[in-house]
Amino acid sequence: MPIAIQGLTKRFGPVFALDGIELEVPDRAFVALLGPSGSGKTTLLRIIAGLERADAGQIRVDGTDIAAVRPRQRRIGFVFQHYALFRHMTVFGNIAFGLQVRPGATRPAKSEIARRVEELLALVHLPGLGGRYPRQLSGGQRQRVALARALAIEPKLLLLDEPFGALDAKVRKELRVWLRELHDRSGLTSLFVTHDQEEALELADQVVVMRDGRIEQQGDPAALVDHPATAFVSSFLGDVNRLPCTVSGQGTVEIAGLRLPADTRGLADGSRAIADIRPRAIRLVPAGTAGDGVVAGTARRVLHSATTVTIEAETGLSPDPIRIEADRYAADLPTLAVGDAVALRLPQPFVFAAET
Ligand SMILES: Nc1ncnc2c1ncn2[C@@H]1O[C@H](COP(=O)(O)OP(=O)(O)OP(=O)(O)O)[C@@H](O)[C@H]1O
Fold first, then answer.
1. Quick check: CB of 234 below 6 Å from ligand 1?
2. Which residue intervals define the domain ABC transporter in the entry (predicted)?
3. Are 211 and 232 in contact (CB under 8 A)?
4. 3-class SS at 39?
5. Is 335 in the pocket of ligand 1 (CB under 6 A)?
6. Could you report the per-residue pLDDT of 206-251, keeping only the tens digit for each?
């Protein structure tokens, strides 16, 4: 079901948890709400779910203002990180709960509930585990039961608040791939809260970046990564080298004498700006190489991780060394030691007005 949110505002004392949110979510979309702690993600989800009331604004789900619909009748399923399973109930009992508490006329027959629960257990890849208690399950299995419980009421809209936040990285990765498949198969519209940018970019069709109760930028993952609208989005979506620069003509910036092409629209010639360059976008070229966008430097640190090599190089372009991140299995990666001469080929940076 499509969601349309207009002017949604929520204050807690002096804090604007939400400050005039405008958001359109198309039918069947998988949308990630991404933002730092306290940016308003959970509050937005709780208001849609009916667990919290907005001070102002409107939410329409499938064209209907949900303020007039009781939470139970909204057909919204939710899975929250801390919204634990009922410990004293079996897996079966947990999943069946939403159907069993329906008023008489709309409550399915016992046999029908049993059939649905079995179907859901198969869907979340836990067949035959209906008789277990939550304590007899792993963290990942518990979250899948929580998802089956949310799906039991046949929601049109699924709200997920860091559902895998407490799980280890490997299980988390497996579950998010699986969740995306489940979303695609079931025809749901899903809103997923995370503060993990990798998770948001990998999972979602649309990513909404929030900051201080406002939407900073919204778009598909590629648009956000390739065209961050603000310095905040640029640094929030991944590691950046942030270099002071000057706008030196249409489509060019100068960083300590080095000229680079850049999208400088909206910035005045001669104005001070910042140039963001991702460590992964920098190429190491043989020392001594000259040419456009190439700067010479000296390696000051070389750090090895399981899959990458991070080099910090002093170049004179910025007070701090520039970080370069390379795939450690790249065929052309030179072996470097601290103190070696290096040359870096810089890509087109993201440029923003200097922060005042
Ligand atoms: N019940 C409450 N009472 C007072 N302030 C609240 C309440 N709930 C949220 N806030 C405040 O509203 C702001 C937004 O909080 P919210 O939980 O929505 O952020 P969030 O982006 O989900 O953060 P996190 O990633 O840490 O969960 C924060 O400043 C928070 O302290």
1. no
2. 3-237
3. yes
4. coil
5. no
6. 999 999 999 999 999 999 998 999 999 999 998 999 999 999 988 9
* pLDDT at 290 > cutoff 60: yes
pLDDT in tens, 150-173: 888 888 899 999 888 777 788 788
Instruction: Sheet containing 272-277: give its strands across.
Output: 258-261, 252-255, 241-247, 272-277, 350-353
Report phi then psi at 186, rounded to 5. -95, -5
Q: Residue 57's pLDDT band (boundaries 50, 70, 90)?
A: very high
Pinpoint the residues of the chain covered by CATH 3.40.50.300.
3-232
The CATH number assigned to the domain with range 3-232 reads 3.40.50.300
Atom 26 of ligand 1, residue of closest alpha carbon? 37
| Structure confidence at residue 69 as a pLDDT band (50, 70, 90) | confident
In short, whether 46's Cβ falls inside 6 Å of ligand 1 is no
- Rounded (to 5) percent helix, strand, coil in the chain: 30, 35, 40
CA 15 to ligand 1 centroid distance, Å = 9
Q: Residue 330: pLDDT above 90?
A: no
What is the complex's ipTM, to 2 decimals? 0.95
Rounded (10°) angle between helices 91-100 and 139-152: 20
228 lines ligand 1 (CB under 6 A): no
Contact yes or no for 351/268 (Cβ under 8 A): no
The CATH class that applies to domain 239-353 reads mainly beta
Which is the closest atom of ligand 1 to the Cα of 52? Answer: 1
| Residue limits of CATH 2.40.50.100 in the chain | 239-353
15 Cβ below 6 A of ligand 1: yes
Kindly indicate the confidence band of residue 308, based on its pLDDT and cuts at 50, 70 and 90: very high
